[in-house]
Amino acid sequence: MERQYRKVPDCEKQALRPQLENIWKKCFFDTDEGTKFVFENIYPDSRCYCCFIDDICCASLYLIDGEIEDKNGISQRVHYLFGAATLPEYRKGGIMSSLIEYALMDSFKEGHKASVLLPANEGLYSYYGKLGYVPLYGTEIRDYELLKNHKSEKIPLIYDEKEKTDNIIKLRKTAKQPVQVMQFPDKTVKNALGYNSIYNGFSVSGEDFYMTVQSSSKETVATEFISEKPVEEVLNSVFSEFDDIKKITVRVPCCSENKFGMINVLDKSVEFSHTIYIGLTKD
Fold first, then answer.
1. How far is Cα 83 from Cα 61, in angstroms, rounded to an integer?
2. pLDDT given at position 148
3. In whole angstroms, what is the distance from residue 70 CA to residue 65 CA?
4. CB neighbour list of residue 125: distance below 8 Å, 6 or more residues apart
5. Closest by alpha carbon to 252, among 242, 260, 263?
6. Residue 4 in contact with residue 51, Cβ under 8 Å?
7. Which CATH class name applies to 3-137+257-277?
């Protein structure tokens, strides 16, 4: 069976969508609502690469444009790789490794200087390492016990959804952080907030902070947190009235000894720091 690797041109995206949705749902066990959101909002603006065997799309991955400053402070074109998946019956044959290599080579030709991703589990760090990726250390995962009787000045929140989204987009670009924050197009940020809301997620923002939150009966996690105020001050102010949330795990941008995410530098003439905060991830 001959394998064909290629980038899906925009003119073919709609026709291929049913096969890609099938891969997405089978591999990520996403809901109908989540899958529909991805393919109506995120898929059209992403670069999609596929492997075909006998005209069957058996594996796919997606690239979203982004920017990271190099060590000279020059903004460089990069991408975030996500949704890498192979149908179960086609696994263990090296299809995904070859597809990633093909996508990286093609994106390098288009001017991308690096590829960034977040492995879905610890074991995948080794897998991606064999493909040229190295760990990032720009995220610290911390658990905070909320002080319900904490008496501090209440931080004003933004409730209008459009105003809140606009403020989040602005803070991602301008808020001073201990490490560099990977930048994405405004539409990508909006899509990430929309996708997060499908899964009991919500965003909270004030003038100089914001966080995206995933909450369940088991845990509450701030999957992205950008603030110019101390973390504890923000958390205790925001969650003081949430009686059911007593502890929250926060992904804080800072230098860390623990890896979170990976980078593959495609242009070896460009140097990047390994302390980069990705954000905008749902895993």
1. 5
2. 60
3. 16
4. 119, 135, 259, 262
5. 260
6. yes
7. alpha beta
Question: How many Å apart are CA 113 and CA 70, to the nearest integer?
Answer: 10
Separation between Cα atoms, residue 1 and residue 90, nearest integer Å: 11
Using DSSP, state whether 105 is helix, strand or coil: helix
Could you tell me the two tokens for 193? Answer: 């907030």
Dist. CA 187–CA 172, nearest whole Å: 13
Tell me the residue ranges of DSSP E strands in the chain: 3-7, 47-53, 56-69, 75-86, 114-117, 134-135, 139-145, 180-181, 201-206, 209-215, 220-227, 247-253, 262-265, 276-277
The model's pLDDT over 121-156, given as tens digits with 9 standing for 90+, comes to 999 999 999 999 999 999 999 999 887 655 667 889
Q: Do domains 3-137+257-277 and 139-253 have the same CATH topology?
A: yes
pLDDT of res. 240: 79
CA distance 31 to 199: 10
Q: 3-class DSSP state for residue 146? A: coil
Torsion of CA 97, 102, 105, 107, to 10 degrees: -110
- The strand pair at 247-253 and 262-265 is best described as unpaired
Going by the DSSP 8-state scheme, the letter that residue 90 receives in this structure is: G
Which pair of tokens denotes residue 197?
A: 């809301």
> 51-90, pLDDT tens digit by residue?
999 999 999 999 999 999 999 999 999 999 999 999 999 9
Topology adopted by domain 139-253: Aminopeptidase (3.40.630)
Domain residue extents for the chain? 3-137+257-277, 139-253
